[in-house]
Amino acid sequence: MDIKKRVLQFWEDVANQNPIKLQEYFRPDAIINWHNTNESFTVEEYIIANCEYPGQWCGEVERLEIIDDLVISVTRIWLSDNSFSAHATSFIRFYDEKIINLDEYWGVDEAAPKWRQDKKIGRPIN
């Protein structure tokens, strides 16, 4: 299995909200955790949460690190009309070439808080 290719395709299917393809990535007993909202999902629940999320989505994997059976990805997801953008840092653990555990941390892309802007500290990354 080319794990890098598999994770890149996974994120494409997440953005496309493809429930049939998403099911194929997971072991039936996989657990998916969204830590920012304190939610834990079964595979079926995750697919509902992902595929019924409103809007048309795009995605781009910005960084991928592979350590044995663990893949760490940083992915930007945005609405196709560019009205919303977020980044997900994901820890994806594989077992027998399927995802057994997915821990995600989401952050909304937004301007720095006013107090930091007022101090004129930091600069744009890109």
Automatic annotation (TrEMBL):
Name of the protein in question: SnoaL-like domain-containing protein
InterPro entries, per database record: NTF2-like_dom_sf
Naturally occurring in which organism (per UniProt): Clostridium cellulovorans (strain ATCC 35296 / DSM 3052 / OCM 3 / 743B)
Domain of life: Bacteria
